[in-house]
Design a protein that fits this description.
heterodimer; A: about 170 residues; alpha+beta; elongated; B: about 350 residues; alpha/beta; 14 strands
Chain lengths: ~170, ~350
């Protein structure tokens, strides 16, 4: 009778190949993830710029529906026309009445409104000194975005209209 | 005999199953994250664009506008002390302030925003009112021909019932067909005596309300559903069509009075500014214009207007008197070709 020799063989788990495959897959996924994050950041930056533009347009549009300054002929409000006497009264009220100033600071937010009037005299052909109507800067100076609109300025006493420009600056 | 192979194959499958589940889980988590991110992006865009839209809507007076809401509902604050924010319902994003814009609307707007805007004149333009509603909000008019004028004034894009106004149409005849809110509107009747259809009784109490307009007193009574009946909630006042419509669109009496408070505050400021302007004009008027007594009269009227800051029967009656007086004074000044008060 032959003696059957028992050989002791340990089984080997051949998983190293699989592990390397998985590692490479994860590395590729991570690279794809980082790339996607980078693209999203770029898109977010564009979005932020778009929102700033929208904010600028929104703030400037407030002045389009602002009966406090608009020309009014028996309550017929004229678009893009501003009453010089209303401008003067509005400015004086803000200087003398804190509650009035606070109200409009909250209404307007952090913006600056300047009005330029053109002097039509043939000798000068110049601009009057600009009127700083409203200024509410932020505590940090991060710059300002400005938009300008041509307007009509009306003097109801002299019954004259002047060419002007309204400058709306939104603090960033 | 070599039995190594059997164990190796079983182990491989277990291993593949575990790793496969992990990778699948990862992709599900990423997809979920992207979906939530897209939702947040949509809500953020909606909030920002609505802000801009609401500002520009004010200038489109007497214009009916409709904006689709893509799977979003707008929630508007309608408390007496806090009517200054709107946001997207169930959103983690912060709301937007409406502290200076009187917006008259229900507390939730679904499906699409139906907007309308009117100028509020007292008699000078004191503010722009923005009215918001939803096509899934039913406006049910109970009464006869006296409601026709009001129905004609309201925008056509509102869901109005019945199609033809008739005395024979009763409150109990209105059957709810998937409207999320119902507002009964009547003139000089008592909504607490209204019967409700069974489909309306099943609705939640805050989804059914009524207003009763009393034109002789310039007052509006608000009612809210409680179980099967409409319960009286309070009386407020209006001065003209713009304010009456404001009450009609408002979720409740608190929302109406809070937003009217904003309107009155701006009216006070504009009256103060016009008073100042009036004083400046008086120093520069021509000889013929300075003889007119209307500028001095206007000063006292505008000073009274600066002080009206509450919604009471007396204050709104005073507002109407001042409005008429200023209007007449302005007309007289205009007839004399002098600079007008407003």
């Amino acid at each position: 009778m032959k003696t059957i020799s028992k050989k002791n063989k340990k089984a080997q788990l051949q998983i190293m190949e699989n592990v390397f495959v998985l590692i490479i897959i994860f590395i590729i996924l991570i690279i794809a993830f980082v790339f996607a994050i980078g693209m999203q950041r770029s898109a977010q930056k564009d979005k932020l710029d778009e929102l700033r533009e929208i904010e600028l347009i929104k703030k400037s549009q407030i002045l389009n529906f602002f009966p406090e300054l608009q020309c009014s002929d028996n309550n017929n409000l004229e678009p893009d026309c501003y009453d010089i006497y209303k401008i003067m009264s509005f400015k004086e009220k803000m200087e003398e009445d804190d509650a009035f100033l606070r109200y409009y600071k909250f209404l307007f937010g952090n913006i600056k409104i300047t009005i330029h009037r053109y002097d039509p005299s043939p000798n000068t052909q110049n601009w009057f000194d600009p009127v700083l109507l409203f200024d509410n800067p932020k505590s940090e100076d991060l710059g300002i975005k400005i938009v300008r609109f041509p307007i009509l300025l009306r003097n109801v006493i002299e019954e004259k209209d002047y060419f002007g420009v309204i400058e709306v600056g939104v603090y960033e | 005999m070599n039995k190594k192979g059997v164990i190796e194959i079983q182990f491989n499958w277990i291993y593949v199953a575990i790793v496969g589940a992990i990778i699948l889980g990862m992709f599900v988590a990423i997809a979920n994250g992207i979906r939530q991110n897209s939702r947040t992006q949509l809500e953020s865009d909606a909030i920002n664009y609505f802000d801009e839209i609401f500002v520009s809507m004010q200038g489109s007076e007497n214009t009916e506008l409709s904006i689709m809401l893509p799977g979003l509902d707008i929630k508007v604050d309608t408390d007496r002390e806090n009517c200054n924010f709107y946001t997207i319902e169930n959103s983690k994003l912060g709301g937007r302030s409406t502290e200076y814009v009187p917006i008259f609307s229900p507390d939730v707007i679904k499906k699409s925003v139906l907007s309308y805007s009117l100028r509020w004149d007292v008699p000078f333009t004191a503010n722009y009112f923005l009215y918001l509603s939803s096509p899934d909000l039913a406006h049910v008019f109970i009464g006869g021909a006296e409601l026709n004028e009001l129905r004609d004034e309201l925008p056509n894009h509102l869901s109005k019932f019945p199609k033809e106004q008739s005395d024979s149409f009763k409150s109990g005849d209105f059957k709810n067909q998937n409207y999320y809110k119902i507002r009964f509107i009547t003139i000089n009747k008592d909504p607490s005596s209204f019967g409700l259809h069974s489909s309306v009784k099943k609705m939640k109490d805050d989804q059914v309300s009524a207003i009763n307009i009393k034109p002789d007193e310039n007052s509006i009574e608000f009612y809210q559903k409680k179980k099967d009946k409409l319960e009286y909630k309070g009386t407020t006042y209006y001065t003209d069509m713009a304010t009456m419509m404001a009450a009609l669109y408002s979720e409740n009496i608190d929302s109406y009075e809070c937003n009217m408070g904003k309107a009155l505050e701006r009216m006070n400021r504009i009256a103060a500014m016009l008073n100042k302007r009036n004083s400046l004009l008086m120093t520069s008027l021509s000889a013929s214009c300075s003889k007119l007594p209307y500028y001095t009269q206007a000063q006292s009227q505008l000073s009274r207007l600066e002080k009206i800051d509450k919604i009471t029967k007396d204050s709104f009656e005073e507002l109407k008197t001042i409005e008429e007086s200023l209007y007449n004074a302005n007309e007289e000044i205009n007839d004399q070709s002098c600079p007008t008060i407003y």
